[in-house]
Amino acid sequence: MKLNVDGLLVYFPYDYIYPEQFSYMLELKRALDAKGHCLLEMPSGTGKTTTLLSLIVAYMKAHPLELTKLVYCSRTVPEIEKVMEELRKLMNYYEKEMGMEQNILGLALSSRKNLCIHPSVSKEREGKVVDGRCYSLTASFVRARHAADDAIPICDFYEGFDAHGKEFPLPPGVYNLDDLKEYGQLKGWCPYFLARYTITHANIVVYSYHYLLDPKIAEVVSKEITKTSVVVFDEAHNIDNVCIDSMSVKITKRLLDKCSNSIQILETTISNMKESDSKRLEKEYKRLVEGLRDANIARETDMALVNPVLPSEILEEAVPGTIRTAEHFVAFLKRVVEYIKTRLRVQHVVQESPAGFLRDIHTKVCIDRKPLRFTAERLASLIRTLEISDLTDFSPLVTVSHFATLVSTYTKGFTIIIEPFEDRAPTVSNPILYFSCLDSSIAIKPVFNRFQTVVITSGTLSPLDMYPKILDFHPVIMTSFTMTLARPCILPMIVSKGNDQVAMSSRYETREDTAVIRNYGNLLVEIAAAVPDGIVCFFTSYLYLETIVSSWYDQGIIDQLQRHKLLFIETQDAAETSLALINYIKACDNGRGAVLLSVARGKVSEGIDFDHHLGRAVLMFGIPYVYTQSRILRARLEYLRDQFQIRENDFLTFDAMRHAAQCLGRCMRGKTDYGIMVLADKRFSRADKRSKLPKWIQEHLKDTNCNLSTEECVQTCKRWLRQMAQPFSREDQLGISLLTLEQLQSEEMQKKIQQRAQGV
Amino acid sequence: MADEDEGNEYRWESGYEKTWEAIKEDDDGLLESNVADLVARAKRKRAALKATGATQLGMMRHLFVVVDASACMFLQDLKPTRFLCVLKLLEGFVHEFFDLNPISQLGILTTKMKRSEQVTVLAGNQKKHIEALQQLKDLSCEGEPSLQNSLERAMNGLKNMPVHSSREILVLFGSLTTCDPGDIQKTIKSLKDNNIRVSIIGLAAEVRICREIAKRTGGTYNVLIDDHHLKELILNQVQPPAVAGSMEASLVKMGFPGGTPSLNGGTSDSSADHAPAYCLCHIESETSSLMGHNGYNCPQCGSRYCELPVECKQCGLTLVSAPHLARSYHHLFPIKPFIERAQVPEATHCFACAKPFVEAEANVYECETCNQIVCLDCDLFIRETLHTCPGCASDPVKAQMKTN
After folding, report:
1. Domain ranges of chain A
2. ipTM
């Protein structure tokens, strides 16, 4: 249908629209008009993606000069594919309505692993191996060598792309990963490089967060995206962690040992080359004197090694003399690695600032800050010069070089922690150096500065006011939308005590208490007896899950549980977990019913949807606080307190509640879906926790359901499930939670929508 | 149980209702019209469900009723227990079923301990079924049910039934889990291939596999809210369903045994017909006794039965009486729903019950054919019980002309 959103003609590819989708469009348009950033929370399953796409495409069509490009960042490949499907639907609708081909090009970009069509390389399973092999076939020196000697293999698809692909741009349309591959096969062009090249002139680009947030990749992939773009981060509730991870480095003893090996390889290659072809090394030396500015030209395929910092600071200058010659640089690297090795030889935990580290490295091994800053770039240059085509072995050394560059570039917002052993196994020596980013705004700052509008959206962003603080930006719009429902299809409940009135809590003091564990077990057994099909349970950590399951086993609770449903457990092993998931789904489909025990913050809690019968109930055993004894976390908390005036407790609660909300949201995947959400911890009923749940959950959390015992909870479930099982058709939704065009335009509904928009 | 005087669940068991929110004042600040309106609407809604057109109906039904007898049937959310409540309601169902579907057959299965057991075989004798149901009350409920086993067993009983009959399974399913030996999807597929319709009534919550079975075999799936609703759901199954897909229409051979022998002066009036004989339906039971002159003789083989309708044990002929067929007739030609219209001053009283219309009743109902006006209660009575319009019946000539 065609909508009028505040004076903008929006083509919406469905016949019906949810009222909150319309409100979402209104808010989004305001943000686009203001050319500012915005933060929007809308429950999952209410069609966020299609709403975003249809409004932004309409805006691009209406104001082609002000808004030229949409960059849509999603988390996983399946999510990217989903976005592409929605986009295709929208474009088909445009074509049908306007009666002509649309001049809009949308494409998805993913790693080489997902896009490669080379007959043998594409068979590789691991991303790093694919990257490495691709590099060994397409690097500029390999191609140069091939020109001289036909025996040296190159990738025909890349050659095809290089010869013709740049002259003939991709015709307008929507290309998902498979379409790109197909097109690549047809033309004989490499789809990966084609996609990367096309990004610069495509109207809509869908890719992963990392292409924009991780400075190592962002500079190569996304540097030419214009300022007049809108950037959307979907499912962005964890965006601060993504930012932090992209800037953090972890160095273990084993990694350093591998580094030493790689350095040896470097040394031998250099000495070999000196004998055979010393000219090349000289040439490199000269180039380094001139500076690195033109180093990247015509080297798009050499991206496997890139600089982790934002380069404007570095590329302006020439590489310092101490590391210009290859031998000196290798000796320098050796020193750095040996220095870190000695640092790892500690008996107690060390925490220091980057400045302290720099001072120490200067006094102990006489390494200045400046050469350290150029380590990453210098290493990349050396590897290019040496024409080493197999890069997979060098990744440890690359990690160390990133660390060296980062530690000397940023003095604020980072910390170095060296732990001689893990907390769980204090007797086993396993030294690790963490170079940890504390400030999530560092990685995302260039994104906010560069693009006119950045949209951060997810199903669970509450409490909204935390994100502007930790990401350090000023949104023009910050709104949380609720879900209008024709029937109360979520039932959140806080269960605070067992039938014996013993309070349930995962608090540290009561965690080992058998009464609490037994009460948790009884709750699960009774819910399993009352709820059909699938039940998903979340625990606060793997450790807690294991202790609980073993004591349930002793208490006979597992036996009782298996009378009602089959039991599956998530483990840290990804393969094991996916096998468990497959069988879980099978058990639910067959009507046997199943319980999945998993962990908040685990794989299950983030990426997997349990829609309809797969998740009729979600149980949250305890509040999923992050492991507070972790030094990295404590350093971050301290930093947040000092820099952003966020109290430690506030941040911890915020983090716990967003993960809890994320887990609870797993069971609700649309308006025809329904699910029970049980929060089994006394502390959830406190106002500071409750008020941090997303608005759409809070709305249904009645006061009467905030302090239930196991039995009361089961009673409520039973009654509610019977109501939900009654026939429910689209007609029941129409006019309330689902609107036709006429209904949307009716005065009454417009008034309601206005009210909703203002009320938040 | 479902008795009226026992009432609904206790107040403290039910949820917190905001009854006052449903009530709104009218323009004069009065509530009365509003309440009457609510009541009337609820009644009409129920009646409207049944007004279906004349489609081909599966009149000759073969139905297996599967009763869940697993551990969860001992729960007391239906009083006294789920199992007893279901059995009691089933007795009523069996009675109604044979009343409305005289030429049909019924069988009963139970499922517990992952197995399925046959209680009665497909037969047209309601007494036997009701007796079996009463005996079931002492059965102990234990273990898990198996949907697949019960469906397979019912399917084996049904698949050899003639093609013109409607094959159905009704499952009363209390459990939320099913423990099956194999892939239930295959069972669903063969049910579908055999044209068997599976309807399921859930006693606790919506189970995905039940919904899928019902959807794919063309049956219905409902979950009860309380025991009244359960009764309604069970009784809904009494109505013969519309024919699914490709059931061919065919002629069925039936026998019409004469009425009371003394009045029967027809051709089959031989002395053998009236000689005292054992009733064939009771011949196996110990209480069988010699029948006198009463009873019905099969016109084909002459065996005698105490009751109709029945399938002849000797020659397999379906024996019915004409009133039975006539009773099935209204399923095929339901009367057209009456038109709801505002009260008119000309009509002062209901045509059917002669009660004068009062102010509070805003709407009256008019028959399309004979243009007589009746009140709401009569409208419902006509639709649910009488199945014929008194206006048309009292003036058949006019009605005939109109319908033609």
Report:
1. 1-104+203-236+452-484+735-759, 247-439, 490-629+658-728
2. 0.82
